[in-house]
Design goal:
The complex is a heterodimer of chains A (263) and B (118). Chain A is of the alpha+beta class and 263 residues long. A 5-stranded antiparallel beta sheet of chain A has the order 6-5-4-3-7. Chain A has a 3-stranded antiparallel beta sheet with strand order 8-10-9, covered by helices on one side. In chain A, strands 1-2 form a two-stranded antiparallel sheet. In chain A, a hairpin with a 4-residue loop joins strand 9 and strand 10. In chain A, helix 1 packs antiparallel against helix 2 and helix 6 packs across helix 7. Chain A is elongated and about 120 Å long. Helices cover 0% and strands 29% of the residues of chain B. Chain B is mainly β. In chain B, a hairpin with a 4-residue loop joins strand 2 and strand 3. In chain B, strands 1, 2, 3, 4, 5 and 6 form a 6-stranded mixed beta sheet that branches. Chains A and B meet through loops of A and loops of B.
């Protein structure tokens, strides 16, 4: 145990350092496990991830500082000697450091959260992990996507579930020979009876355009963000069936041909 | 939606008639809610809607009627506090079974603060 490894550092110091590192790892893992169990379901996943990473970094950082002093490494000496090296590394790692700073802004501002379906720079997917340097997403097709954080901070972000309710629109065309006023009433009644279409803001159903091939009716519906896609698909089908059941058709694009009788 | 899309609350909507005495109801599909409204503000308040937190509802029933008791305290022209009361509307009512999820801490009297208009 008293065997000298280098300088003033003996075997016992190495063993103590390894022990401290292992204990720190174990304690940090235990605390992270407890945090996830205690706050899981009550606190957002992003917050839990942040707390877990913070706890882990704190314990490992403390362990490393302790180990460095046990191993006789003078931190202040390192800082002085590392000055020039730091400048070189700084220039070389501009982008990485930029991403890390962007990551900190992301964690503070929270434009996106873990689990949020988002569109960033034209790419859509669900956020799976937000780390300091990059954000990992899963596209709706199931592909893994990694986006550097500085791109996210500077990009337009569309978060599909940040708000409690959202609006979507159907455009329904009916024949000119169909009763458009009746169509509007039928659709309004249908929406009134739908359990998930919000009463406030109220749905809007109105004739928007007298098109080339059809009378165009716009249907605007507000629904809870968690249900909007189901509401959209259900209401579109139900509107189609309802109109057809009442003798109205959704016409194909058409042209009327007039011929001149020269006689 | 009560409030704005960003910070509002999604609520279950029910349009109800208002009565000054206990109405007859279809026992199997309807209940009655007695609402005691107190205006603590300095001006008249016009109420068009009430929002209640569906948690901690105390339902009582008799052979003919299902009922809840609630109170509303108006604090301003656009704000009020609503809560359910843990007492029956009619005498000899039986309290219904109440269910609480294991993770929730039982609060004695949770309120809902209506801040987006009455």
């Amino acid at each position: 145990m008293g065997t000298t490894i280098y300088g003033d550092v003996i075997l016992k110091d190495i063993l103590v350092s390894v022990f401290i590192l292992l204990i720190s790892l174990l304690i940090s893992k235990l605390i992270v496990f407890k945090v996830r169990r205690l706050f899981g379901g009550k606190v957002g996943k992003t917050n839990i991830a942040l707390i877990s990473k913070g706890v882990f970094a704190f314990f490992i950082g403390t362990a490393i500082v302790s180990i460095l002093s046990i191993l006789g490494i003078n931190l202040s000496g390192l800082l002085v000697a590392g000055g020039v090296t730091g400048i070189v590394i700084g220039f070389a790692s501009q982008k990485v450091v930029g991403n890390m700073i962007a990551g900190i802004f992301l964690l503070l501002e929270r434009p996106i959260e873990i689990g949020s379906p988002v569109e960033i720079d034209g790419k859509t997917g669900v956020v799976e992990e937000i780390s300091l340097v990059s954000t990992k997403m899963r596209t709706f097709e199931g592909l893994a996507l990694r986006v550097p954080n500085d791109k996210i901070v500077n990009a337009d972000i569309k978060n599909f579930t940040a708000n409690k309710a959202r609006r979507f629109e159907h455009k329904i065309g009916i024949r000119y020979s169909d009763d458009a006023k009746k169509a509007v009433e039928l659709i309004s009644d249908l929406l009134d009876k739908h359990p998930l279409v919000l009463k406030n803001p109220a749905p809007q159903v109105f004739i928007n355009d007298l098109g080339d091939s059809s009378v165009d009716i716009i249907v605007r519906i507000w629904g809870p963000t968690t249900e909007w896609f189901n509401i959209k698909t259900e209401t579109l089908w139900e509107i189609k069936c309802l109109l057809e059941a009442n003798g109205m058709e959704i016409p194909f694009p058409q042209r009327v041909m007039w011929s001149v009788d020269k006689t | 939606l009560y409030g704005n899309p960003r910070s509002g609350v999604i609520c279950r909507y029910h349009k109800s008639d208002v009565f000054l005495s206990l109405p007859d109801t279809d026992y199997l599909t309807e209940g009655i809610m007695r609402v005691n409204i107190e205006n603590d503000a300095d001006e008249w308040a016009n109420i068009t809607k009430l929002v209640f937190d569906a948690y901690n509802v105390h339902i009582y029933y008799t052979e003919k009627r299902v009922s809840l008791d609630a109170s509303v305290k108006i604090s301003g022209p656009m704000t009020a506090e609503t809560t359910f009361l843990n007492k029956p509307v009619e005498k000899n009512s039986t309290a219904s079974i109440e269910l609480y999820t294991a993770q929730k801490i039982v609060s004695l009297n949770p309120h809902f603060y209506m801040e987006e208009g009455l």
